Structure to design on (122 residues):
C-alpha cells in the first residue's frame, strides 16, 4: 500500500526508506469512513430529488461528480489530508443520490410484474 515504507537507492548509492503517505491507522480510518458520512446523509435527499427532477438527471449528476472526484483523488491526496477527507465526503454525498435515483428510474420504466427481478438483477 502507499502507506507502507519501501527502500529507494539513489544514484550515489545512498539507501533511504520512504513512503508516499504518512497516514497512521486512525487517519486511514477517517479517510475510509468519510465517504460513508456523505453517502448516508443523502439517501433521502436522493429519492426526493429523483422524484422532483427525474431519476436520469440525478443519476447522471451523481455518477459524473463521483467519477470526477475519483479521477482527482491522487493529486488531492498528495496536497492535503484534510482536503482529501473533504473530497471523500463530497464523493459520498454525490454517490448517495445514485441508489435512490436508480430505483426511481426502475419505478417508471420497468413493468410492475418484473420490477423486483430487475432491481435484484441490476
Amino acid at each position: 500500500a502507499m502507506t507502507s515504507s519501501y527502500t529507494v537507492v539513489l544514484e550515489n548509492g545512498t539507501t533511504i526508506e520512504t513512503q508516499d503517505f504518512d497516514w497512521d491507522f486512525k487517519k486511514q480510518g477517517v479517510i475510509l469512513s468519510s465517504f460513508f458520512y456523505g453517502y448516508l446523509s443523502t439517501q433521502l435527499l436522493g429519492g426526493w430529488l429523483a422524484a422532483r427532477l427525474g431519476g436520469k438527471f440525478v443519476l447522471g449528476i451523481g455518477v459524473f461528480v463521483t467519477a470526477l472526484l475519483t479521477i482527482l483523488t491522487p493529486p488531492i491526496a498528495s496536497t492535503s489530508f484534510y482536503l482529501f477527507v473533504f473530497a471523500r465526503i463530497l464523493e459520498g454525498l454525490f454517490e448517495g443520490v445514485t441508489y435512490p435515483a436508480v430505483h426511481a428510474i426502475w419505478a417508471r420504466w420497468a413493468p410492475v410484474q418484473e420490477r423486483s427481478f430487475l432491481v435484484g438483477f441490476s
In short: The beta strands are 6-9, 15-18. The mean pLDDT is 89. Residues 35 and 88 are 5 Å apart (CA to CA). Residues 23-121 form one domain.
